[in-house]
Each structure stands twice: as structure tokens, then as C-alpha cells.
Design a protein that fits this description.
15 helices; GMP Synthetase, Chain A, domain 3; about 550 residues
Length: about 550
């Protein structure tokens, strides 16, 4: 067991966690019974008590079971931006003994179809603004039912807060067969059947992408989900009197666990923002005396770079942190000057349902992943020999922990290659290169996998390539990361066009097509055309060579 970090372990915090033998839904049930009249969610000024929260969860769960035929273990798509309906939908799926499939709201119809096909889901909970992407799947029979939510149903009649564009849109008439409005489903007031799931049943499959290009589901049980949500409320202590600002996307594991499931466990109040706006965030912190805020570094940079930020009262904050990229020293100092707080960086993946490493609140290090948290055994191994490496030597980070996933849904070969037996234990191979220091703090160096980090969003080149190959003018394509002063990294596509289009295809043609066929953050912003792509003797694409050549050209320029 890796224990080097115990000498810097936070004072007055236990090293091991005894996890509940219950489901995530049980957490909401207990909190609603304890605090039925306490605001669980505040949405641009409108409060939803925990009592009403649970009532609506149960009513929707009953509808899923009685009207839509959802049964134990069925997968249900959840496709929304941050909203009360996302949270209600998440817990309703669990109450129906089913499995949550959270879908990135930036994804479009083609990507949504993959989620449905891969999981066998026939039911979707979808927001009105995203419903057009699901309509075709209803018509084709890929999906049988859609419950369509309107964000404005949960807004106050009047508010002085800035409402994001489209969030205040009124309900629209649903004409598609199989679609039902959210409020109609709740009004049916179906009582759910018995709760049949326990700690080892499937809970949620967050999707990630791998080297094959196809997004794949990370199979998590209620037990693995419980590990990181409870860890989050103990590492940065949270109680029923805490107030959490919810700005991270809830489909993403960090937002899901630290900003939703953790606060629900402790009975905290969640201040929900559908889309990021730094002035609105500052006003919400000041107005509702926010105590905890988990974010990504790019969000914190934007927030702290606001010339007017010093005009807001941020004194209620007691814990601010996140990840996604290293926090610049100047921004961290700005946060400390304003609040007296250190920005606590952490590290986790979809496969671990959020953090495995976090900085100690009383002894953080800058631009550092942190130390292994509760019951996490993390090592660094040589990527060739697979031997364990000592402090300071770079290798692949591996993790054994209760929050590690069971495997990739319906992908036994990829699951097998993702794990390694070490010291008699099963470790997950993160694919990330890093090292740890003498005190047991881990640092990220590079990625074994081809992930592009664009403004905190994970972009998998092989997934983008697989979509681009649908373009009739593309013979071959390689997607690489190039440095970008604003986004950190941005996406570039290097293309070999077909003979038919070689003289007529333009960069703008490709960029526009990509923006119409994939999420905006994935779409290449740079395009170049070549006669051939470099390949190894075995025919493998030499993407790293292209990426290094591009970086060298940019450095010379």
C-alpha cells in the first residue's frame, strides 16, 4: 500500500471510509425526511425544498415504471443542461431501479444515437432545447419514449438575475409519438414500486472515449459512486448548513459527485446555474452566502479576472477547488488575496467517478494533482517494464480504489487492457504519465492517451476522426492537439482529400461541416491538407509525429 503521503494527511480526518450498504437514492430519502422544508435547490431565485424534490423524484420514477416500462437495470438517457430537472431526473432513474446514462448536452444527434445503440436505452429524459436532436431517434424507433423538460417551469415569476438565453423559453407543444411533457408525467402521480437496488447494482455509466474512437460507458455501481461522494464531503467538510454553487456540468463526474450527489448526502443547499456567467456567479455567492464551489481552472480564471470581482462579498467561501488543468500561480494568488483560500487542485477520471487524488486543505501544493485520498493505493510504473518507479521518476499512474469502475460496458477486451495485477491487487491504468515527490504528492506530466484538453473539455482525436470519415471528400484524417493561448490546446485536422475533391475542398468547407456534425468543442478549428499521412512499418498512423511537427512550426513562427 502506498503510504508515503500519510505524513501530510490532513489533521483530524480519518484515513479510511466505511461505505454505506445502500443506494444513492436512499441518501435523498434520508435528507428529505430530515430536512423536508429546507431548500435543496435554488434556481435563479426559485427554491425547491428537499420535500418537494423527493416527491417529484418519486412521481417521475413511478411514471417511468408504470407508463414507460422501465425496469431494474434498464439504461435511461439523461440529456440536459444543469437544472432542477437534471437532478430530479437523475434520482428518478435510480428510484426506478434503473441506470443513469448522462449525456453531454453539447452532443448532437449522431453522438446521441451512439449512446442509445451502445446501451440499449429506449427512454430518454431530455430538455426542450435539446429535444430536436432526439426527435429523429424517436421516429426511427431507436428510442421509444422521451420525457421533455422545460427549464422555465422551475424559474421564479420575476428575478433580477441574468437568465441565460433560451432558459426562460416557454413550453412548446409536443407532437411526436412517444414524447410527453415533464409536467404531464409528474401530474400522473404514479407511485414507484419497491426499491430493489443495493450497493453492488449498476448506478451510472459516464461515457468516456478511448483509442478506438467510440465513446464507451464506465460501469459504476452504487458502491463506487458512494466512495467519491462521501469522500468529497469529508475531505472538504460539508454539512446541512453548507451552500454549494453548482457551475460544473452535472453530466461530468466531478460536477455529478462534488456538486450534486455529495451535497444531497449532507443535506446542503445547491445554487444551480444552467450556464456559466461570472457576474451571476459572483452575485449568487454574495446573495446566498455560498460556502463551497467546485469548478474547473478555466472557469476560476475567468471569474477572478473580472475587474469588478473585488466589489462582491466573497467572505462566505470556505472551500474552492477543481481541476481540468494546472492553476496558474498568479490566479491562485488572486484567489488567496480576495478570500484567504488556497485553490485545491485534484485529479480523477470517468473511470473513477471523480477524485482519486486531492491536495490536503492545510498543505496544498501548486500545479499538483494532490495526494491519494481515502483507501486509494496509487503507484507509478514504467510503461514498458511495468515495474514500480521511485519518487521523481516519470511513468504511468495506476490506481486501486473503491471508486474504480467495474469495466467498460460491453467491451471485455478494452476492460482487460485497462487493468493490471500488481502486488496481488487489480489496478486501473489511467493512461496518464506523472510522478510523485518524496512527500507523496502526484504531478501530471503528459498523457499516454491522445486526449486533447480544450478549455477544460476532453476531446478524443479518434472519435473526431471517426465522425469526419463520414465526409465524402475525406480519404484519410488525423486529428492532433496544437497549443492555443486561450484554450490551452485546440483541435487541428490534417486531411488527405479524395481525388475527386482534391482541387476544390477548402478549410472552411471542413470546419463548417464539422460544426454541423459534432459538439462545438470537438470540431477542428484548424485544417490542413496533405498528400499522405505518416505511418509506421505496421501501417499505424504516426499522429505523434504530426503533432510534434506542428508544434515545431508554431515555435519557429
Amino acid at each position: 500500500m502506498f503510504d508515503r503521503h500519510f505524513k501530510v494527511w490532513p489533521k483530524n480526518i480519518v484515513r479510511n471510509l466505511t461505505l454505506p450498504e445502500t443506494s444513492l437514492y436512499y441518501n435523498l430519502q434520508v435528507t428529505a425526511e430530515r430536512y423536508p422544508h429546507k431548500p435543496g435547490i435554488i434556481y435563479y431565485g426559485e427554491a425547491l425544498t428537499y420535500g418537494r424534490f423527493k416527491q417529484e423524484v418519486d412521481a417521475l420514477a413511478g411514471y417511468l415504471q408504470a407508463e414507460l416500462g422501465v425496469g431494474k437495470g434498464d439504461r435511461v438517457l439523461l440529456y440536459m443542461q444543469n437544472s432542477p430537472q437534471f437532478m430530479i431526473g437523475f434520482y428518478a432513474i435510480l428510484r426506478a431501479n434503473a441506470v443513469v446514462i448522462p449525456v453531454n448536452p453539447m452532443n448532437l444527434a449522431g453522438e446521441l444515437e451512439h449512446y442509445a445503440d451502445d446501451t440499449g436505452a429506449s427512454v430518454i429524459l431530455v430538455a426542450q432545447d435539446l429535444y430536436p436532436h432526439a426527435q429523429g431517434l424517436l421516429r426511427s424507433g431507436t428510442l421509444r419514449h422521451a420525457v421533455v423538460a422545460t427549464y422555465s417551469d422551475y424559474l421564479p415569476a420575476h428575478t433580477d438575475l441574468a437568465i441565460p438565453e433560451g432558459v426562460d423559453a416557454p413550453r412548446r407543444t409536443l407532437e411526436e409519438a412517444g414524447a410527453v411533457a415533464w409536467h404531464v408525467a409528474l401530474a400522473a402521480k404514479h407511485a414507484p414500486g419497491s426499491l430493489e437496488v443495493g450497493p453492488d447494482d449498476y448506478c451510472v455509466f459516464p461515457y468516456t472515449s478511448g483509442t478506438t474512437g467510440a465513446p464507451k460507458g464506465c460501469v459504476h455501481t452504487h458502491r463506487s459512486a458512494m466512495a467519491t461522494l462521501i469522500g468529497s464531503v469529508i475531505w472538504n467538510p460539508s454539512s446541512a448548513d453548507a451552500v454549494q454553487l453548482v457551475t460544473l456540468p452535472l453530466f461530468h463526474v466531478t460536477g455529478m459527485q462534488a456538486s450534486m450527489n455529495g451535497p444531497i448526502f449532507s443535506g446542503a443547499t445547491m445554487i444551480v446555474m444552467t450556464r456559466w456567467d461570472r457576474r451571476t456567479a459572483a452575485e449568487l455567492i454574495q446573495r446566498y452566502r455560498v460556502t463551497h464551489w467546485r469548478n474547473i481552472v478555466t472557469m476560476a480564471i475567468d471569474f477572478l479576472s473580472d475587474p469588478a470581482i473585488a466589489e462582491y462579498d466573497l467572505s462566505s467561501l470556505i472551500a474552492v477547488g477543481g481541476g481540468g488543468a494546472a492553476m496558474p500561480e498568479a490566479i491562485a494568488e488572486r484567489l488567496h488575496d480576495l478570500t484567504g483560500l488556497h485553490y485545491l487542485e485534484g485529479y480523477g477520471l470517468s473511470e473513477t467517478l471523480a477524485a482519486t487524488h486531492v491536495n490536503p486543505p492545510d498543505r496544498p501544493k501548486a500545479q499538483c494533482l494532490g495526494i491519494p485520498v481515502f483507501d486509494v493505493d496509487s503507484r507509478v510504473i514504467d510503461v514498458v517494464s511495468l515495474e514500480e518507479l521511485p519518487p521523481g521518476e516519470v511513468g504511468e499512474i495506476i490506481v486501486n480504489a473503491p471508486q474504480v469502475f467495474q469495466g467498460y460496458w460491453s467491451r471485455p477486451e478494452e476492460t482487460a487492457s485497462a487493468f493490471i495485477e500488481f502486488d496481488g491487487k487489480r489496478f486501473f491504468r489511467t493512461g496518464d504519465l506523472g510522478y510523485y515527490d518524496e512527500d507523496g504528492y502526484f504531478f501530471l506530466v503528459d498523457r499516454v492517451k491522445r486526449m486533447i484538453n480544450a478549455s477544460g473539455y476532453k476531446v478524443w482525436p479518434s472519435e473526431v476522426e471517426s465522425i469526419m470519415y463520414k465526409h465524402p471528400a475525406i480519404r484519410e484524417v488525423c486529428v492532433i492537439a496544437v497549443p492555443d493561448p486561450r484554450r490551452g490546446e485546440t483541435v487541428k485536422a490534417v486531411i488527405v482529400p479524395t481525388d475527386e475533391y482534391a482541387d476544390t475542398l477548402s478549410e472552411r468547407d471542413i470546419i463548417d461541416w464539422c460544426r454541423e456534425n459534432m459538439a462545438a468543442y470537438k470540431a477542428p478549428r484548424l485544417v490542413s491538407f496533405v498528400d499522405a499521412l505518416p505511418k509506421s512499418g505496421t501501417g499505424k498512423l504516426q499522429w505523434r509525429q504530426l503533432q510534434e511537427e506542428e508544434r515545431a512550426r508554431m515555435a519557429e513562427a
